[in-house]
Amino acid sequence: MKNIPVSVLELAVVSEGNNAATAIRNTVEVARHAESLGYKRIWLAEHHNMEHIASSATAVLIGHIAGLTAGKIRVGSGGIMLPNHSTLAVAEQFGTLASIYPDKIDLGLGRAPGTDQLTALALRRNNSQLDYDFQGEILQLQQYLSTNNKGSKVRAFPGEGVEVPLWILGSSTDSAYLAAALGLPYAFAAHFAPRLFKTAIEIYRKNFRPSAQLDKPYVMACVNVLAADTDEEAEFLSTSLYRMFLGIITNERKPLQAPAPLPDVFNNPEVQHALQSMMYYTFTGSKQTLQRELSAFVDETSINELMITSHIYDMEAKLKSFSIVSAVMKNQIFNPI
């Protein structure tokens, strides 16, 4: 397998029987474990009005995790949903984070609100998706973070002149064109929106223009990965993930549930089609299986970095999954974990 960095996406998902405090503690444990294994970064995703996700105050959680890790793993947003925030506030927040934790903070930016429209309006009352200028706001954010902003009447402190790498997040081709035009690294959400993944990264690479931040295209793909000692065990663990996606499809969201046989609705043809369209890039299995499947995925897509999200109910099994993936990505398939 091509030797590329591997990273983690976390949402601080609340498991059945637990609460937000437990979810946050578990996310810190994941970050520390990933850091010990040599993962490159851990990102937190911004979502709102979702009872079982505890990453809504994303910048706060980033600071918490950065402060409780050893400084070897980068911590960032996957992403900050820019329509929900003033660009000045984002510059100040991430300027502060990067001042406390130099060269350890990433700022991934998305254009979706990460919630329903009513909640988006509550977050930022002048929000209007009809005329929202994502590119313009990114350029404004870059200006606030730049030393070239010294002559402006509105400045970001901390933030101005602070090194905060920007990323464009995407689940469509629009984001690919934008990331290419701005010369920024591109992270694609293939873990829930796989349909346009290959088209988007092709567009990004073909249209990329070098920038002060990046001289050539850099693609990171986020996929679902669940690893265990055997394929059968990994498949059983994945029933928690399937139940999570079933909740999205049927609008009956619940905390992350323990693995168990799937309900009858799982076999409904329409539900199966919806699941496959969302979960196409989901990899489950033993070391041997993942070595084969992840190697094929990396070789086929020529990605520069792999980000994984692993919705596993039991924390011990989840941490073990990250250990197995680390060994796979380092081509240590026959080494003990």
Description:
The radius of gyration is 19 Å and the shape is globular. It starts with 5 loop residues before the first strand and ends in an 8-residue tail after the last helix. Helix 6 packs parallel to helix 7. The C terminus is likely disordered. Strands 1-2-3-4-5-6-7-9 form an 8-stranded parallel beta barrel, surrounded by 8 helices. The longest helix has 20 residues. The chain is built from 11 helices and 9 strands. 42% of the residues lie in helices and 15% in strands.
In short:
With 337 residues, the chain is of the alpha/beta class. The chain contains eleven helices and nine strands.
Strand composition percent: 5-15%
Unreliable residue runs: 333-337
Query: Strands of the biggest beta sheet: in what spatial order?
Result: 1-2-3-4-5-6-7-9
Describe the sheet with the most strands: 8 strands, parallel, barrel
